[in-house]
From TrEMBL:
Pfam families tied to this protein: Hormone_recep, zf-C4
Gene Ontology cellular component terms for the protein in this record: nucleus; transcription regulator complex
Lineage: Eukaryota, Metazoa, Chordata, Craniata, Vertebrata
Biased composition (Low complexity): 1-17, 160-173
Protein family membership: Belongs to the nuclear hormone receptor family. NR6 subfamily.
Keywords: DNA-binding, Metal-binding, Nucleus, Receptor, Transcription, Transcription regulation, Zinc, Zinc-finger
Domain Nuclear receptor: 29-104
Domain NR LBD: 222-453
Major localization listed first in the record, in broad terms: nucleus
Organism listed in the record: Gallus gallus
Name of the protein described by the UniProt record: Nuclear receptor subfamily 6 group A member 1
Database matches in SUPFAM superfamilies: Glucocorticoid receptor-like (DNA-binding domain), Nuclear receptor ligand-binding domain
Biased composition (Polar residues): 140-159
Length: 453
């Protein structure tokens, strides 16, 4: 029986439309109490804009500690609010933004809509700003505080299938310094939660890799068979979407957006065809594979774009986007959400470019990401957990066999998956009209960084 695209499967354009702004600007003309920008509603207890709402949530969820290079009284306005994060967070607290209104899992949606603004003492504000408030939580394991989105056996992913910002690199403007290396160093050596007790090697790499010399060994026959099955399920042929452009042609925003939609459509249906070829396809119920694909298609597309199709995406598509010139108004309206996605995509591209992920590793990563037993609505989560564990160990076995002199390679690969989930979730919130500029900026930066190497 042929698998038809599920009726409830979101199309890329429909999903992206969720991030489109409302046309009715008459709903709320009030101003943000933090920076004076146009407010979008009541966020964490006070009237504020989307930018300050997101900044406050990231600061609290990520337990950020900022520094002010002036006198801790910097002016907060729409144009100047990004100049001093310390003073921006300080004003958020002084104006009554309520930390307890942030969901503990770091996801959208307040934990309690009835919670209003709060007035806290200067001493408590100082404890938050200095980081003392978070010191007792510094050594908590991954599974605590809502940060449970990891594509490992027994992972616990939040309800909307996005990792909390705690599990991802800092979104400050220094993508070179913040990232997976720092993330790995932060958590290796901390107490392992019960969900990860049966991972014998992942958390001991850094401690023992310098002491134990790599030894040549053979690949387990079962791992070899399973990997071959996964790779054979992949369509590794070049993408068919035309991405060639004549010299001198100027691409409009509408043309570039149409191309991005067509490309996303092709990538999406390649994922649907991939599911039918999976070795465990017949083991899944129709409801479960529909639910899995509906929840992970964006992540699968992003992962494939960064690996097996990267030459076309960061080559041919980059050439097309270079012919698109955004207007001053587009540049001015580029959102903080778009800026964060841009930074994280550039860093992730550099990480994948450094790792040079093989087709075998890509196939395993894709299966692990797809087999997410914590997505809501599944009928047989325990079955998916066992499948997830199977390919987790297959990937680990292959990586250790193929790259014996790179003992950190496997954890590096696995730590890319929560970042992919976070970015994929964030891209949905980027307004439609900003996508052409976002892709132009990302592809230009990535192509330039490769040419310099």
């Amino acid at each position: 029986m042929e698998l038809e695209p599920p009726a409830e499967l979101p199309e890329p354009r429909a999903a992206a439309a969720k991030g489109a702004p409302r046309n009715d600007d008459r709903v709320d003309q009030r101003t943000c109490l933090i920076c004076g920008d146009r407010a979008t509603g009541l966020h964490y207890g006070i009237i504020s804009c989307e930018g300050c709402k997101g900044f406050f949530k990231r600061s609290i969820c990520n337990k950020r500690v900022y520094r002010c290079s002036r006198d801790k009284n910097c002016v907060m306005s729409r144009k100047q609010r990004n100049r001093c994060q310390y003073c921006r967070l300080l004003k958020c607290l002084q104006m009554g933004m309520n930390r307890k209104a942030i969901r503990e899992d770091g996801m959208p949606g307040g934990r309690n809509k009835s919670i209003g603004p709060v007035q806290i003492s200067e001493e408590e504000i100082e404890r938050i700003m200095s980081g003392q408030e978070f010191e007792g939580e510094a050594n908590m394991s991954w599974s605590n505080n809502g940060d449970s989105d990891h594509s490992s056996p027994g992972n616990g992913v939040s309800e909307s299938n996005q990792p909390s910002p705690v599990s991802t690199p800092s979104s400050s403007r220094s993508v070179e310094l913040n990232g997976f290396a720092a993330l790995r160093d932060q958590y290796i050596g901390t107490p392992v939660s019960t969900h990860y007790q049966y991972l014998p090697h992942l958390f001991s790499y850094s401690a023992h890799s310098a002491l134990v010399p790599p030894q040549a060994r053979s690949l387990d026959p079962q791992s070899h068979s399973l990997i071959n099955q996964l790779v054979s399920a992949e369509d590794l042929e070049p993408l068919g979407t035309p991405m060639l452009i004549e010299d001198g042609y100027k691409v409009t925003q509408a043309e570039l957006f149409a191309l991005l939609c067509r490309l996303a459509d092709e990538l999406l249906f390649r994922q649907i065809a991939w599911i039918k070829k999976l070795p465990f396809f017949c083991e899944l119920s129709i409801k479960d594979y529909t639910c899995l694909l509906s929840s992970t298609w964006q992540e699968l597309i992003l992962l494939s774009s960064l690996t097996v199709y990267s030459k076309q995406i960061f080559g041919d598509l980059a050439d097309v986007t270079s012919k698109y010139s955004p207007s001053d108004d587009e540049l001015h309206r580029f959102s903080e959400e778009g800026m964060e996605v841009m930074e994280r995509l550039i860093y992730l591209f550099r990480k994948f470019n450094q790792l040079k992920v093989s087709n075998e590793e890509y196939a395993c990563m894709k299966a692990i990401n797809f087999l997410n037993q914590d997505i809501r609505g599944l009928t047989n989560a325990s079955q998916l957990e066992q499948l997830n564990k199977r390919y987790w160990y297959v990937c680990q076995d292959f990586t250790e066999y193929k790259y014996p002199h790179q003992p950190n390679r496997f954890p590096d690969l696995m730590m890319c998956l929560p970042e992919i989930r976070y970015i994929a979730g964030k891209m949905v919130n980027v307004p439609l009209e900003q996508l052409p500029l976002l892709f132009k900026a990302v592809l230009h930066s990535c192509k330039t960084s490769v040419s310099k190497e």
